[in-house]
Design goal:
By secondary structure, this protein is of the alpha+beta class. Helix content is 30%, strand content 24%. The longest helix has 12 residues. The model has no long low-confidence stretch (mean pLDDT 91).
Length: 200
């Protein structure tokens, strides 16, 4: 059985990824009859109390992916812009400085505005990249062209499914395969994840 810190991927009935939930929330959804179906690997067997009438102890088996009842929200997510945060940004850019190409731990990375805010740039997914502190300091309040720096990849706004992946911790292989099926074919994350797997 999995460590209790392992997250469960929750989807809507159509299979659209919605969010990560912990084992407590997953058990609550099973108990309330909100789980339409489950797939993936068995993560937990949670045992409860003993039924006074039957004398049997309750058991809930939690899978790595659960689809819950409710109306599909694909249209709502299609136009949804995920909130920008450094954790998701650094993961989007595979913990690479998009100026020097070096890979760094999160503590040594920063958010760089391609067009500086002081020059009218927005604090938005399409205008921010991951940068090491040295490159960010060197670029300062200039554009990459003015600083003589080459941007190694074009920043992009993740779709909702991509954002769910970016928010995940210790994403299991079956959860990853499920999420990848919901990424746009043109998503830069396909190539970045393939390179990461190859270098692991």
């Amino acid at each position: 059985m999995a460590d209790l810190a392992q997250q469960v991927l929750r989807t809507d009935p159509s299979g659209m990824p919605l969010e990560w939930v912990d084992y407590r929330e997953a058990v609550r959804l099973y108990h309330l009859g909100q789980v339409a179906y489950s797939c993936g690997t068995l993560l937990y067997r949670i045992r409860g109390g003993i039924n006074a009438r039957s004398g049997r102890r309750s058991l809930i088996e939690v899978s790595s992916i659960i689809a819950t009842h409710g109306h599909p929200r694909e249209r709502a997510w299609r136009d949804h812009v995920p909130p920008l945060n450094n954790r998701a940004l650094f993961k989007r850019d595979a913990y690479l400085c998009l100026y020097c190409g070096g890979r760094f731990p999160a503590a040594e990375l920063s958010r760089d505005h391609v067009t500086p805010i002081s020059r009218g740039g927005a604090d938005s997914w399409n205008n921010v990249v991951t940068a090491c502190r040295r490159c960010n300091t060197h670029k300062a309040g200039r554009t990459p062209e003015e600083a003589g720096m080459t941007l190694l990849a074009v920043p992009f706004t993740p779709t909702h499914a991509e954002y769910v992946y970016l928010q995940g911790r210790r994403v299991l292989a079956d959860q990853m395969a499920f999420l990848l099926a919901h990424f746009p074919r043109s998503s830069p994350l396909h190539a970045r994840l393939a390179r990461r797997i190859a270098s692991a």
